[in-house]
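Why do we bother with a discrete structure alphabet at all? Because it lets us treat a fold like text: something you can write down, compare, and reason about line by line. To make this less abstract, here is a complete entry for Putative TetR family transcriptional regulator. Read it the way you would read a sentence in a foreign language you are learning: slowly, and without expecting to understand everything at once.
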Amino acid sequence: MTLAPGMPRRRGRPSVLDTDDVVAKAYRLWSTHGFAATSWQDLAAATGVSARTLLRHFPSKSDIAWLGVEPATERLTAALAATAADVPLGDAVRHAIAESVSHEPHVQRVSADWLRLISSEPELVAMAPAAYRPWIDELAGYIGRRLPEAPASVCRAIATAYQAATFDALLSWAELAPDIDSADAVEEALRWLTITVPAP
């Protein structure tokens, strides 16, 4: 991540932030000291990035905590767009969700710490519905395009159910089997879900 357009620059080398490294170190720190008890100075010491620079990129600590949802939504969008129209809807959704979780090693490394944090920290638990809304909206839109006869509320309910099932599968993975690929664990769990179109 580089400085946003219009942001003042200091002389010398441009400011560049390795967000993956910041996130991984922040999760480790929060898992040890707690989210609320960790100050910006603590984060700066753990990440090697000044508190001023961190605040320039992240207006709040929760912005660091939820940073992974946007790229997950982008992966979901790309996977759905690449799915052939003749793939059964349940298979298409399951595969795209697994791709949104990501097989990338750096994502795998921080996933367990992230899951423990956002499922136990009250401030972050309260933010979950808003944080997941773009992901759910993307999936609901795809389901609606595949099932044009389905009411929008039904498509959103299905997408929300898939998000809840995905999150629960990830929690189980973090607790029971963190050595396997989390995306594979999610895809296997979602095989138990089906989308059935009611008879006319």
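What the structure line is telling us, in plain words: Residues 122-146 form the longest helix (25 residues). The chain has two domains: 19-64, 66-190.
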